[in-house]
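Fold this sequence, please.
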Amino acid sequence: MRYIHQFTVLLLFLAFAAPWAARADFVGCIMSHVVATLEKYQELGPPKGLHKDHGLIALASGRKMFYDYEPARASKAGKAKPTVVLVHGLTEDLHSWDDIAIKLVDQGYGVLRMDLHGHGTTLAADLESNYSTDIIDYRDNVDDVIGLIQEKGVKNAYLVGHSMGGGIVAEVAARRDLPFRIKGMNLNAPYTYRLDSARAQMPQMALAENILSSIVPKSFMDMIMDPVFLDYYTFRSFRPHVENRYRLMRGIPEGQPLTALQSKWVDAVTQGAIGVMKGMRAVDVTSLVTKMPKVPITINMGEKDSLVPNHMHEDLYNFLKALGFDIKLNGVEGIGHALPQQASGFVLESIVDGMAQPAGR
C-alpha cells in the first residue's frame, strides 16, 4: 500500500507540476528580457494625471518606490488638513485611486499614493535593480510605505487601503514608534488572512488536494500545490484582467494587438502580482489588531465581492468591535471587489466622514 501511495503522489506531481515547470521557464524568460531600463518602460506610455511632486524616490531601505504627492492645504484657521495615504490592491497601481485622489485634493486634503513593489513604475525599478520579484516579502512594502510617508514629511496620516493594500495598511498601523500620527483607517474589501480555500475553487486542484491530504503532511502539500496553483493556473487567470486594465489605462482598443514590449510588460505585471501573493501569505490582520492604535476604522465591502468573501469583512468587524474599536461596516449593493473604481463616490464619502471623527495617535 505504501508503494501505491508513493506512486499516486508521483503521478499527481507530474500531472500538475509539469505544466507549472513549463510556465516557470516561460516566465523566467520573460523576466530576463522585459524592461531592461526605465526608459523602455516610458515607451509603454504610462498614464498621466499625476501631481507636480511625483517620481521614483530612493528610500532608507535602499529600494526605490514610485509615488505621487500633493501636500495638504492649510484651512482658514491655519491648520493643515490630514494627508490621505492611498494604498492600491493586487495587479493595480496608484492610478486605481485617480478619481478619489483628484476630489480629495480639490477639498484641500493631502494625498500620497504609490506603486507598491511588483506593480507599476516601481516594478520597472525593481526589475532594473535586480530586486527579486519571484517572492516579494510584504514587509518590504510595509517598510517602504512607512519610509515614503516619513520622506514626504507627513505628520498626520489617514490610511486607506484596497484589498491587498488593506492588509499593508493594517501592518503599517501595527508598527510601533511610527514617525507620524494615524488619524484613522479606511479598509476597502481588505485582505484579512490567507485563503487556503482558493485552491479548492478549481475542480482539478480540489481533487488532487483531497487525495494528497490523506497521504502527505500539509507543509509538503503546500510545497507541491501552491507553486502549481499560483505560477501556472493563477498566471493564466490573472493575465486577461491585467491586460484589460492596461488597455483601459492607456486607451488601447480591445481589437488592437499589443506590441511585443507591451505584451511582455503585461506578463511581467502578472508575474509581479503572483510574487506579491506569495509574500502576503504570512499576513493575518486578525493577529495585528491588538497592536493597532484605537483610531476610527471604516470597512467597506462590495456585496457581490467574489474575491474576498463578505464573511471575512464581517468577522474582522466583529473582532475589532469586541475589542472596543470605533468601527463602521458598510456594504455596497451591486458592487464587486473593485470598490475604488466601481464605487469611487461612496469610498470618497466614507474617507471624508472617517476623517471627521476624533483623531487617534
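The chain has a mean pLDDT of 81. The chain has two domains: 2-33+195-279, 38-194+283-355.
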